[in-house]
Amino acid sequence: MITVNLSSKTENIFHRLLGLYKGNHDDLFNGLLIYKTNELKRGIRNIEIDFAFYEKKYGISTTQFYEKFIAGEINDHNDDYFKWSGEYEVWKEFKEELSQLL
Question: What is the pLDDT of residue 69?
Answer without folding.
Answer: 94
